[in-house]
Amino acid sequence: MKSIFSKLRTRWSPGGDGADEPLWIDPEARDRAEDEEALRILRGVRRVEITSRRLVQEVFAGEYHSAFKGQGIEFSGVREYVPGDDVRLIDRNVSARMQHPYIKIFHEERELSVVFLVDQSGSTRFGSGGKTRAEVMAELVAVLAFSAVSNGDKVGGLLFTETPEKWVAPRKGRRHVLRLVREVLFRKPEGRGTSLAAALEMAVRVLKRRSLLFILSDFHDTGYETALSIAARRHEVVPMVLVDPLERRLPDVGLIELEDLESGRRRLVDTSDPEVRRAHEIARRRFEQEELPRRLRGSGESPMFLPLDGDYIEPLHRSFRARMRRRARTG
Asked: Which pTM value belongs to this model?
């Protein structure tokens, strides 16, 4: 009978005190762990795909297309006027310079590039209910991305913390959507902080054509207003704010220690004190109703608040319908 130790590989390395220390590695155990991790990732992605595709088919049929159409027609240049051309297309400035009539040329922009800016800071790994922010973000990305590819659009993503960490270039197709969902669900970020400005600045640099930007974050950040305004001038920006119920209301559970998952700072809070709970609610209400709308003013959009503990589909519906009404008014 072979000894169990025949399955082990030994590597010896000098210890700090000069003694040799063994490092045992079981290749079979390592392979099993890798297989289990791969299965966990596949199950997670498959679960999100099933949920999101059902929502796309049953709930969002037609709404995405109506709310987020392509960019219409885009100016591509001028050419000399020939008899039969539409005189309404004559470019008066160019014609005056060239002393000959020239008309504007347009081409139809049939597809849209949809890019998700996904916050992967420390706070996204928290969720007081059954799901973390990262899990709900993955579901939202899947729902919107499957809606986009079913409409013939490209989808991509930028995952960020205090720096941009992962860029997924826009492409079409189901497999590309699943890759994006996998990155959102299971990628391990290097940083813990948040810089919306850095993410927006990179998006503006890499996206050469007008795109639709969904920003998924808790928006606990400052100093991004200028970058947001610049991005909104070049692209259509949709801010999506993911809210945990504990952020709006503290439970009465006595003395608790709270940790900031981005900075690591901790503090004791006496939740049995009604004044403490009231101050917490007032501060959050001020953030949602005053501070955040003021910071997002440059995007031309109101924040879309999506709860982690409830139905995030209805807020999406309301946003889509409001966008369709605006499109109908503007033609």
From this structure: 0.73
